[in-house]
């Protein structure tokens, strides 16, 4: 099976009403800067179960569109360069 989109959740597994399919065993959370992505023309779609889908640009979401990264347990920030 080949996926056509990059999947983002609209919330955390512990949030009420979130049925995104994000695994509770996930240990890193990557936050997308939606405003910047949309301003630069990235197409985003929201599925019926509130999964945020994108093709990115040529199948990639460049690092400059990542707002922040956290570990799931304890949630310290993970440093990265945009």
TrEMBL record:
<dbReference type="GO" id="GO:0000215">
    <property type="term" value="F:tRNA 2'-phosphotransferase activity"/>
</dbReference>
<comment type="similarity">
    <text>Belongs to the KptA/TPT1 family.</text>
</comment>
<keyword id="KW-0520">NAD</keyword>
<dbReference type="InterPro" id="IPR002745">
    <property type="entry name" value="Ptrans_KptA/Tpt1"/>
</dbReference>
<protein>
    <recommendedName>
        <fullName>tRNA 2'-phosphotransferase 1</fullName>
    </recommendedName>
</protein>
<dbReference type="Pfam" id="PF01885">
    <property type="entry name" value="PTS_2-RNA"/>
</dbReference>
<dbReference type="InterPro" id="IPR042081">
    <property type="entry name" value="RNA_2'-PTrans_C"/>
</dbReference>
<dbReference type="GO" id="GO:0006388">
    <property type="term" value="P:tRNA splicing, via endonucleolytic cleavage and ligation"/>
</dbReference>
<keyword id="KW-0808">Transferase</keyword>
């Amino acid at each position: 099976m080949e996926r056509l989109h990059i999947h983002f959740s609209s919330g955390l597994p512990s949030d009420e009403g979130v049925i995104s399919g994000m695994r509770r065993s996930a240990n890193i959370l990557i936050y997308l800067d939606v405003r910047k992505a949309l301003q630069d023309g990235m197409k985003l779609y929201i599925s019926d179960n509130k999964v945020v889908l994108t093709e990115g640009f040529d199948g990639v979401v460049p690092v400059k569109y990542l707002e922040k990264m956290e570990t799931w347990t304890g949630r310290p920030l993970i440093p990265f360069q945009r």
